[in-house]
Amino acid sequence: MAHSAGETVPIDVARRIALTAQGFAEPRPAGRVDVRHLRRMIERLGVLQLDSVNVLCRSHYLPLFARLGPYARTTLDRMCWGADRELFEYFWGHKASLLPLSGYPLQRWRMRAAERQDWSAPMDPALTAPWSVVVGMQRLSVERPGFVDEVLARVTEGGPITAGEASPDDLRRKKSDPDPDPSTGRMWNWQDAKIAIEYLFCTGQVTIAGRRNFERQYDLTERVLPAAVLRGSEPSAEEARRELVRISARALGVATARELCGATGGHFPLPAAITRIVISELVDSGELVPVRVDGVPQQSYLWSEAEDRPIRARALLSPFDTLIWNRDRTHRLFDFFYRIGIYTPAAKRVHGYYVLPFLLGDRLVARVDLKADRRNSALVVPTVTAEPGVPDGEIAEPLAAELELMASWLELDGVQVTAHGEFGRALSRAVSA
Predict the structure, then answer these.
(1) Of 224, 330, 400, 408, which one is least surrounded by beta carbons within 10 A?
(2) What is the Cα–Cα distance from 163 to 132, expressed in whole angstroms?
(3) How many helices, marked H, and strands, marked E, lie in the chain?
(4) pTM of the model
């Protein structure tokens, strides 16, 4: 599919391009899904975002299920944290994310900037570490010089260890103490050892060796990642940034600059000045094609090898799926205004707590609040809402089928629809049938 610079792309075409790029144009594998399927899909997506909410299941498992169907989650666990791991954790693959090991060298420029504590460098403003680390390190460098080295020594001696085990003196701030770092946020309760070890994580000196009840365990990077990855050639910062934008463009198909690498919605956030330079270089090389997308006022960029293919997908999407994590893009492409309910007070929630959009064909047709009731071995649907103009009868049966498939994958005995309303009753009948 060839597009010319300056061409206007209809919104339905842009939507299919995005879905094709995200792996929804291919049918799910007919046989057993193995590590090769997972590896190819992760490379295609570029990143799996992590999130601690476990009301349904951990978010990083869901994008692969949405595209490939049932697979052994233990296989992904081994790829993430096993002895022969193929993925690593880092902050700046979107948010806290899992990335293919091939992407490790592409993050080294960030690690080096963090190690220099270049928090205010004009080309890397506050993007070398989370803000809580930046503020915390500014204080620790003055108040507790040498503290980071002491934490590193603890990791060297006892790793893998959690942040709570990394304090060399077990000194902890109490909740009643004045908060020296308001920007770190009390909700995270970041102690000095946590700030120090997260800084070491940003610099690449330590990495995540595993998770205990989903709590990070830190160890020296050379004891965790393969030597071939650590000793491999390191691209320049400019080369790394170009490759990061390439990965994002391939995964998205067509996107604006902010969608490619914006601070809040991009695959690999970059400062605006760097973004402009890299995109200009990729346009000059012919890898990105400047286009207009109907209804999108900003300049969009089409990956030169992007395809527009028919979409016959059926999938429940994690709130942190790469297809929809940029809420503005989701609104433009799908006419679907979406906000997750977990950060909204219960009285103000409209569609539920942990709401997954339901993709049918090339449209998002419903919002499904889901909960895994492990005590009663049921996948519970407290709330379900069809999109305006979408007949309940068209989506009840395919949604019921997808829910039953998910329940089986999560090793739950069945689906329990407790949602009220006409659509809830129609879905309950479809599940019963």
Answers:
(1) 408
(2) 15
(3) 15, 14
(4) 0.93
